[in-house]
Design brief:
alpha/beta, UDP-galactose 4-epimerase, domain 1, 6-stranded parallel beta sheet, 3-stranded mixed beta sheet, 10 helices
């Protein structure tokens, strides 16, 4: 393997989020190796928008490796309303984390980007060289540009100091600890919640759009395994793009079956999207199995967690 055993103290920012919790689980379930020391932190441990707090955290932990997941995140409507906030807070978080990692001598940083960083108007298939070829979609340009700048910073740290700072660009992530808020959640968790409500009221499930745009999905526990592989084995600055497009209609069509039946209505005049990414590096994830598990999360006893605040900087 790329990193020798016993030499890694791994700091995971955003450890209380969807991907952070998934990494924590797979490490606890046996993915961690002897001698690896995993430290998961959240906004309760430090405000990463504050340079002094971030530096103090890194001085305390003294990581040799970092998985950087922390971000201010939210759904479509919140992004549209608060583009400036998404830009400023995420730029501060990313700059503080990367520079603190550099200052304490971390050997490697793996950050989490998003498929929304790609140009809104582009040609397909998309690859890593196309990230900066045009502006992202106007709805979430603040968040998108802030995430793009991680790639710029990674390359600059490598050029000037030889740092192994890289990034993963996952597709749409779903799984345990997701945000199932219909207004502010993302594609799959929002659909799953709608299925639950439709089943509870014995009504048809209404979905915006035609279902024809392609979206790529990855189960959070599969992505966690990938992050660990990248941390140990991947030593390039260029980010890794995941692929494996699926029709939104296929995912939506699967959910009523999982929920026990019900009609599915598509509204072509609303929410029509475009294909968000295509991969130069493919990860064969268990999407169907993951979808089955994600649907099982919707249960009356869990409904309180579905209404959690959608915007976090964990």
């Amino acid at each position: 393997m790329g990193e020798p055993q016993g030499s890694m103290r791994i700091l995971v920012t955003g450890g209380s989020g969807l991907v952070g919790k998934a990494i924590q689980k797979v490490v606890a379930d046996g993915a961690g190796l002897p001698g690896e020391d995993w430290v998961f932190v959240s906004s309760k441990d430090a405000d990463l928008t504050d340079a002094a707090q971030t530096r103090a955290l890194f001085e305390k932990v003294r990581p040799t490796h970092v998985i950087h997941l922390a971000a201010m995140v939210g759904g479509l409507f919140r992004n549209i309303k608060y583009n400036l906030d998404f830009w400023r807070k995420n730029v501060h978080i990313n700059d503080n984390v990367l520079h603190s990692a550099f200052e304490v001598g971390a050997c490697k940083v793996v950050s989490c980007l998003s498929t929304c960083i790609f140009p809104d108007k582009t040609t397909y298939p998309i690859d890593e060289t196309m990230i900066h070829n045009g502006p992202p979609h106007s709805s979430n340009f603040g968040y998108s540009y802030a995430k793009r700048m991680i790639d710029v910073q990674n390359r600059a740290y490598f050029q000037q100091y030889g740092c192994t700072f890289t990034a993963v660009i996952p597709t749409n992530v779903f799984g345990p600890h997701d945000n199932f808020n219909i207004e502010d959640g993302h594609v799959l968790p929002g659909l799953i919640h709608k299925v639950h409500l439709a089943k509870s009221s014995s009504s048809a499930l209404t979905v915006w759009g035609t279902g024809k745009p392609r979206r790529q999905f990855i189960y959070s526990l599969d992505l966690a395994q990938l992050f660990i592989w990248v941390l140990r084995e991947y030593n390039e600055v260029e980010p890794i793009i995941l692929s494996g497009p699926a029709w939104v209609r296929h995912c939506g069509g699967r959910m009523p079956t999982l929920a026990g039946g019900g009609a599915l209505l598509w509204l072509p005049g609303n929410g029509r999207g475009s294909r968000t990414s295509c991969g130069g590096w493919e990860w064969r994830c268990s999407s169907r199995c993951g979808l089955d598990k994600a649907c099982s999360l919707i249960h009356p006893s869990r409904m309180g967690s579905l209404r959690r605040q959608p915007v976090t900087a964990s």
